[in-house]
Every structure is written in structure tokens, then in C-alpha cells.
Amino acid sequence: MQAYDKYTIETIGLPSAVLMERAALSVVDTMAAGDFDLSRVLVVVGVGNNGGDGLAIARILHLKGITAEVLLLGDEKNLSPANQQQLSIARKYNVKIGRNVRDFRDYSVIVDALFGIGLSHDISGKLTEAVKKINASNQPVIAVDIPSGLDATTGKILGSAIRANTTVTFGYVKTGLTIGDASKRVGTVIVKDIGIYAPEI
Ligand SMILES: NC(=O)C1=CN([C@@H]2O[C@H](COP(=O)(O)OP(=O)(O)OC[C@H]3O[C@@H](n4cnc5c(N)ncnc54)[C@H](O)[C@@H]3O)[C@@H](O)[C@H]2O)[C@H](O)CC1
Ligand SMILES: [K+]
Predict the structure, then answer these.
(1) Relative to the CA of 52, which ligand 1 atom is closest?
(2) Which DSSP string do the residues of 135-191 spell out, in sequence order?
């Protein structure tokens, strides 16, 4: 799955930060074009590059004057380099970044940027709690690349998974969005071209 991303970055030479920015912009465009209530956006971010996408989304919304805040889940010492870079940029633009929220129902829309295609084993602990609370809030959810908790290859729910109204996936439809438990979690799937080189499609 990630081979296409790797090829684009390492062989074609498109910097990963460019892909991340285009990914973030494609989600912001979808939010602006859809019938979402953007009065109070919460972006839930993890420690990998999916979280990096989320931090970029929150920053772009914030700079447009939209109230957007970040819930950062996971250990800050595990942040991927791209995530760290986006966290630093968001902080410099004074995006509100917290480690817990009072109630997920306080937000008009939730962006799920906890895990993407790098989820490798069952979600557990605090992350499971957050997934269950977000699902229980019944607030509209937009999943970044794939609903967190869904395996990008098998479509299996790894412990627990976010139930999304809309999934914005980058470059190509991951098989995990079409098989297994996917239909219970993905909502409407929108594929956005962000410049990933994927010759077979
Ligand atoms: N396709 C592209 O060109 C682009 C992809 N982008 C985004 O990057 C993610 C994939 O990022 P990656 O860092 O590989 O993985 P994740 O962010 O999904 O998370 C991995 C992170 O989480 C840890 N982890 C894995 N499983 C668990 C678990 N069960 N519990 C706790 N932690 C877990 C793992 O160790 C990593 O640290 C892709 O989906 C896109 O959103 C680019 O940003 C845009 C272009
Ligand atoms: K996600």
C-alpha cells in the first residue's frame, strides 16, 4: 500500500511535505464543499503521518478563520518527523492543541486523523476509549485516508474503529475501504488525487 507513497517520494522525488499539504488541502476542500457545520471543528490526531495530515488540516482551517482545535493522542516522543514538523507549525500559528476534551458533543464536526494506513495492531487503552466516545457522540466524522482502527488491507476492525460519515482517501481506494468490516465504518468514500504516482490505476 505505502509502496506508491514511497515511490512518489523516493523515486519521483516529490517531497513528503508536499504530499501532506495536498492531502490536507483536499480534506479542507471536501469540508468546505460538503454540507458540514464548521462552527466548531475538532481534529483528533495521532503520532504518525496521518496525524501530520490532521495537524495541517487544523492549521489551514484556523488560518481561514474557522474555529478548529486539535486533540493530540499518543506519546509525543513517538511523533514521526513529518508530524513533529506540522505540530511545530500549528503551534507557531497559535492553533489550540490539547491532550483531552470535556465532551466530543461540544464539536460540530470531528476530523479523524488518529491512524491511517500505518495502523499495525489492535488499538487499545486510552485510544480505544477515545474511539468509543467519538462514535458514541454521534457527531459527524470525516476520516482522513481511512477510518482509524480499520486495517487498510483487510478491512478488519482492529479492536475498535471510528465510524465515519465521510472518508477522504488519498490517491487510490485502499482495499481495506471495500472489504471486511469497511462498510460499517467508512461512510461515503471520496478519493482525492494528491499527486501520488500509482501507475496501475
Ligand atoms: N499516501 C500518501 O502519499 C500520503 C500519506 N500520508 C498519510 O500518512 C499516513 C500513514 O502514516 P504512517 O506514519 O505510516 O502511519 P499512521 O499515521 O497511520 O500511524 C502510525 C503510527 O501509529 C503507531 N501505531 C500503529 N498501530 C498502533 C496501535 N494499534 N496503537 C498505537 N499506535 C499504533 C505506529 O507505530 C506509528 O507511530 C497515511 O494514512 C496518510 O494519512 C501523508 O501524510 C500524505 C500523503
Ligand atoms: K484516520
Answers:
(1) 43
(2) HHHT--EEEESS-TTB-TTT--B-S-----SEEEEESS--GGGTSTTGGGT--EEEE
The answer to whether position 7 is within a domain reads: yes
For the domain that residue 84 is a member of, what is the CATH number?
Answer: 3.40.50.10260
| Domain of residue 180, residue span | 2-192
Q: Give dist(CA 40, CA 68) in Å, integer.
A: 6
ipTM at complex level? 0.96
Q: What is the pLDDT of residues 18-27, one digit of tens each?
A: 999 999 999 9
201 occurs within a structural domain? no
CB-ligand 1 contact for 45 (6 Å cutoff): no
148 is in an annotated binding site: yes
Look at residue 200 in the predicted model and tell me its pLDDT: 62
Ligand 1 pocket, residue 159 CB under 6 Å: no
Smallest CA separation from ligand 1 atom 44, residue: 20
Cβ neighbours around 181 below 10 Å, total: 18
**How do residues 85-114 score in pLDDT, each as one tens digit?**
999 999 999 999 999 999 999 999 999 999
Tally of structural domains, the chain = 1
Whether 174 is covered by a domain: the verdict is: yes
Q: What is the pTM of this model?
A: 0.96
In a domain, 113, yes or no: yes
Taking the CA of 50 as reference, the closest ligand is 1
Nearest atom of ligand 1 to the alpha carbon of 152: 39
